[in-house]
Amino acid sequence: MTTDNKFWGWLGHDRSSANGNMVWGQYAPKPFETRDIEIRVTHCGVCGSDLHHLRSGWRPADYPLCVGHEIVGLVVRVGSAVTDISLGDRVGVGAQSGACLNVAGDCPACAKGIEQYCPQHTITYDARFPDGSKANGGYADLWRGPAAFAFAIPDSIPSDWAASMLCGGITAFTPLLEHHAGPGKRVGVIGIGGLGHFAIIAAKALGCDEIVAISRSSSKRKDAFEMGATKFIATNEDKNWETSEGCKLDLILCTVSSADMPIEGYIGLLDLNGHFVQLGAPEDKTPPFSMFILLSRHRSMSGSLIGGRRQIRYMLDFFAERKIRPWVVNIPMRDANKAIQDFEKGAPRYRYVLVNEENLNWARWGC
Ligand code: NAP
Ligand code: ZN
């Protein structure tokens, strides 16, 4: 397949694109370089971050903007300096597409294999590569970018599952590993969406003793138990959950992105020395809370950003070996606007994946 310098994708032109007003159109990809590859996109997951960017929620977006950072597809073009990827390979790209990758020690993050914390981190869309060209995502027919952030997908993982893992999966899995989730550990997961459902599934696969799903209502209770939860808290329905369930957990992953969250109640679920990891990224500041909630039980708090390249490869192998099945719902790429409208309503159970149909050029032919 030959590609040109005009890709097709769903473009957000202003904040209203987050309401389902993306427009299918052409855009110029970055200039093709020797270390780049091109992927014919077959699948792209819909992440909460796509909505934040489309509506300029965190900062003004660099419109026009093609979002999507859970990309899987087939390699259709390989730069001359790429040695580990071949034409026809099935690969995936997550939320990061660039970093300085200086492992000689100048960049402590890249040297440690945690490239997501590289100061020169390029996110997969709504960003600029070092040459100033725009980075665009996977709600598209093609993706072009550095091969260094493309990952071979194990044969046993279907492409729709793999797509959802490349941001949702790794963001949940990395802090579980970092905080030694496994036998003997009691883990809480707040917000049962794309990230949260992965956190439950992965905590079960890691052998955690207790997995407490913390949701606003009881509507996801049955699903959460099926995923592997051992207990369910519905914060808007269960009376006195803050006290009856307080001080019982070792680790909490919080995926909530609303500033309107009962943060003291959440932190209070942690036992002595418990650790709270914030994954969700509110557009407003997180609500203030009393420091005594940390002081009183030697609790601690941190944030965590996606995962590094080594961690992603490890996750893919681990998920393949354990036959981890994410709960994905496939939606035709042509229905991307409907998908993000439904996402905003909280409809996904639990990750939408946009699927390009057989004839990837459908839009070019005016279908
Ligand atoms: P999602 O599928 O919408 O899941 C978020 C969950 O949060 C919802 O399912 C809901 O769970 C809960 N929630 C929503 N509104 C809430 C509210 N007002 N109060 C309390 N809970 C609420 O979204 P996602 O794709 O998992 O992404 C979640 C967040 O993580 C987003 O901010 C996204 O940008 C961020 N993110 C961060 C990273 C990272 O590297 N740290 C990576 C990817 C995404 P219940 O219905 O169970 O309450
Ligand atoms: Zn994401």
From TrEMBL:
- Lineage, top-rank taxon, reads Eukaryota
Q: Which UniProt keywords apply?
A: Metal-binding, NADP, Oxidoreductase, Phosphoprotein, Zinc
Family annotation (InterPro entries): ADH-like_C, ADH-like_N, ADH_Zn_CS, CAD-like, ER, GroES-like_sf, NAD(P)-bd_dom_sf
Q: Which SUPFAM superfamilies match?
A: GroES-like, NAD(P)-binding Rossmann-fold domains
The coiled-coil regions, if any, are none
Q: Which GO terms describe its molecular function?
A: alcohol dehydrogenase (NADP+) activity; zinc ion binding
The catalytic activity, as recorded, is: a primary alcohol + NADP(+) = an aldehyde + NADPH + H(+)
Record keyword rRNA processing present = no
Residues covered by the Enoyl reductase (ER) domain:
17-354
Cofactors:
Zn(2+)
Q: Gene3D superfamilies given for it? A: Medium-chain alcohol dehydrogenases, catalytic domain, NAD(P)-binding Rossmann-like Domain
The biological process GO terms on file are: alcohol metabolic process
PROSITE patterns assigned = ADH_ZINC (PS00059)
**EC annotation from Swiss-Prot or TrEMBL:** 1.1.1.2
Tell me the Pfam families matching this sequence. ADH_N (PF08240), ADH_zinc_N (PF00107)
Q: How does it assemble?
A: Homodimer.
Per the record, the similarity remark reads: Belongs to the zinc-containing alcohol dehydrogenase family.
Query: What protein name does the entry list?
Result: alcohol dehydrogenase (NADP(+))
